[in-house]
Amino acid sequence: MPVIPKRLRDNLDSPYDNADVVGFIIMYTLVVFIMPYILFKYASFEVFITYFANVDIVANILAVNFPDYFVKWYSVYNDTLRGYLSFNIISVIALSGIFYFGLTSNGRSTNEKWLIMIIMSIITWTLPTLGIPLMNHKVEDFLEKNDDITPEQYNAYRLVITIAISFIFLQLEWLAVAYIERLKL
Prior knowledge:
This protein is mainly α and 185 residues long. It has one domain (6-182). The chain has helices at 6-13, 18-42, 45-53, 55-65, 67-70, 81-104, 110-145, 151-179.
């Protein structure tokens, strides 16, 4: 497991407070329930399933960049029962999105569907779950060593770089979903 950045450790070690309650409400009402519902109703299937299968990446971005609110609800570093349960609930939701896509792929054999779900699981769940925090930690180390960066710039750069890293994973997933029908596995 990657080394935990000090700012995340400080937030994980602090007692639960109002910011954590706000983070929980935002995480589960907006990120986990409302956004998938809106996308299911009004967006294309590819956009909906990409978000649904990557809800863990959204939670990861929030936890890494706004730890005061979200790190206790989604973090590979959390060692509390609440954090463990929340992390795994969000992970199961993301895996459900992958399986939903695999099961709704028409005109595919059972073996092809399994292969699609395994490939999507690697791209959307296995790699980003530890990859985003690890890459973010490397970015933080680099930014902390640069004396010319102000604290405001540090936070802005970290946020933009984390979103860019996450966007790469999302693009890989979207490409897989959008063009999966063209693949002859």
